[in-house]
Amino acid sequence: MGPLVSLIALILLAAAAGWWLLRPKPHPVPHYVFRTLAPSAEPAAPVATPVATPLPTAAPTASPTSTPAANPNGPQLALIVDDCGQWIATERGFVALGIPLTLSVLPDVPYTNVIATEASDAGKGVMLHLPMETLSGLNPGPGKVTTEMSDAQIVAQVQSDLADVPLARGVNNHEGSKASADTRVMRAVIGVLAQHSLFFIDSRTNVASVGEATARAMGVPTAARDVFLDNRADVAYTEAQLSQAAAIARRTGSAIAIGHPRPTTLAAVRAMIPRLQALGIQFVLVQDIVGKNSP
User: Fold this and answer.
1) Model confidence at 217, in pLDDT bands (50, 70, 90)?
2) What kind of fold does domain 67-292 have according to CATH?
3) pLDDT by residue (tens digit) across 145-164?
4) N- to C-terminal Cα distance for the chain?
């Protein structure tokens, strides 16, 4: 019985060994199947509305705590940003500045309503930038007033442009070097403003402009531009022009400076705000200066 038992044991052992070697093997599971995702710290922030890219600015000469308090009798500087409604990012940069200023918005351009609403909501001034015929023959854009129009056509065009910028408290001319020197044209334009109780700022694109004089004669609150800030797209140039405008304000009590939605202009204004405030300059809406000049 001994040899038989040994043989059976060997057979069983061999069968067990064969089963072990031939047993089904599970497929390896990729390591990433059961990986847990690390929880995010916070929900993703909503995509922000585009704004102007921050630009380098000069170091302020006065800290916010040392900025002089507003003096109602001090020199006042009104900044107007013309041609708005076309370069929304830079225009939003101006709206974001912590000073009063006025955006003059063109009719019937891509962001007419958007930037006018945002500026008004931020407490900025809003004007209609009225396109008017040029001496050079260049097209000033949609909504233009020309010297070939009849009085009735001019009135209809200005009414239409005002309807495009209903938040406007006043008007200044865009281009207009030919039309703004035409007394008949300006009387028709100013007549519409009188009906709507709006003020007029003469951009003085032509030394022969009769805009301010016509408005004053017709009893419409008015004033004129003193300084253009950015005939050159250069930060240092614009800073110098701002200094010139401040000097006029200190000498006469107020000044109006017109710039455009250029990154260089935005950078210069941002840099000069604390410097001019340290000199006692108050930034105001242009309507505040016009109010002083009312007939």
Assistant:
1) very high
2) TIM Barrel (3.20.20)
3) 999 999 999 999 999 999 99
4) 137
Task: Give the span between the Cα atoms of 70 and 59, in whole angstroms.
Answer: 22
Average pLDDT over residues 268-291: 96
Q: What is the domain partition of the chain in residue ranges?
A: 67-292
Name the nearest CA neighbour of 134 among 185, 170, 168: 185
The answer to whether residues 105 and 81 touch, using CB atoms and an 8 Å cutoff, is no
Per-residue pLDDT of 221-241, as tens digits, reads 999 999 999 999 999 999 999
Q: Crossing angle for the helix pair 88-96 and 263-278, nearest 10 degrees?
A: 10
Helix (H, G, I), strand (E, B) or coil at 77: strand
Q: Phi and psi dihedrals of 294, rounded to 5?
A: -60, 145
33-62 pLDDT, tens digit each: 222 222 222 222 222 333 332 333 333 333
The contacts found for 152-158 with CB under 8 angstroms, 24 or more apart, are: 154/185, 154/188, 154/189, 155/188, 155/191, 155/192, 158/130, 158/188, 158/189, 158/192, 158/193
∠ CA 217-220-222, nearest 5°, is: 95
Alpha-carbon distance of 238 to 234, in angstroms, equals 6
| pTM summary value | 0.76
Structure-block tokens of residue 28: 């390896």
Distance, C-alpha 283 to centroid of its chain: 17
Among the listed residues 85, 91, 94, 142, the one whose alpha carbon sits nearest the alpha carbon of residue 112: 85
